[in-house]
Write a structure and sequence with these properties.
This protein is about 30% helix and about 25% strand. The chain is α/β, with parallel strands linked by helices.
Length: about 240
């Protein structure tokens, strides 16, 4: 990204199953050998989509008990590093764990790398862009076998959670559960998709049977995008672009 022009210049993805060895070895190999990553970047920001994350209201946050809080929800080992991200729109902190080995690999490559959770930029952007509307809306960010559901209601985040799913039935259930729990009308309250999903996908077709007001997110505003990215649907890699905001 060209930070002066606020323009995204390039984007590249890697499929880990194309490499032999464990995740750390694969990441290290990519960082060392990929030509795109050999440039001298002025700033590097890393968004980690770890399931080991929980929100704590600012009024209840205590630095000394952060590890205990995260350990209450997840198996948090000594081989993981605790990070805290400030989520200003929610008046809360996000606690999340990153494996020491993985963090070391990135710090070795870029000493000043900024590490945050992949959800932070997404929440900030949703609040900034959609809170003024005051209407309820459900957002779903889709990744391979994983989905994050966010409910925006009356200009505030009422709900956020990440789920692993194995089938269209799982995917649909998690969305409808949010509609039911918060008394949302699936015929009226808009559902906005972002991430790795297409209209012809089975999971989309199943959700559309129950939720009729669906759209796909446009790319985050406030930036420009290289023509080299024009082949990508606007809703792809949404959380990645949002981190830059």
């Amino acid at each position: 990204m060209d930070t002066k022009k606020k323009k995204f210049l390039a984007l590249k993805t890697w499929q880990f199953d194309q490499f032999s060895g464990d995740m750390e070895a694969t990441v290290q190999k990519i960082l060392q050998e990929d030509p795109l990553l050999q440039h001298n970047f002025q700033q590097v920001r890393l968004g980690v989509n770890t399931p080991k994350q929980t929100f704590v209201p600012d009024t209840l946050y205590d630095t000394g008990s952060s590890r205990k809080v995260l350990s209450y929800h997840f198996d948090f080992s000594d081989n993981e590093f605790l990070h805290t991200a400030r989520i200003s729109p929610m008046d809360s902190k996000l606690l999340f764990a990153v494996p020491h080995s993985l963090q070391h690999i990135f710090r070795e490559k870029w000493k000043q790398v900024s590490i945050t959770h992949g959800i932070t930029g997404l929440i900030d952007y949703i609040i900034r862009e959609y809170a003024p509307e005051k209407e309820s809306r459900v957002f779903v960010n889709v990744r391979q076998q994983e989905m994050t559901v966010i409910l925006l209601e009356a200009g505030k985040i009422r709900f956020q959670n990440t789920y692993a799913y194995d089938s269209p039935e799982d995917f649909t259930y998690f969305i409808l559960a949010v509609y039911q729990e918060f008394g949302l009308d699936p015929g009226e309250v808009k559902l906005s998709f972002m991430g790795e999903l297409e209209k012809d996908a089975k999971i989309y077709q199943m959700v559309f049977q129950y939720v009729r007001n669906i759209d796909f997110m446009k790319r985050p505003s406030g930036f420009t995008y290289s023509y080299k990215l024009s082949f990508l649907p606007d809703h792809y890699f949404y959380s990645l672009f949002a981190i830059a905001g």
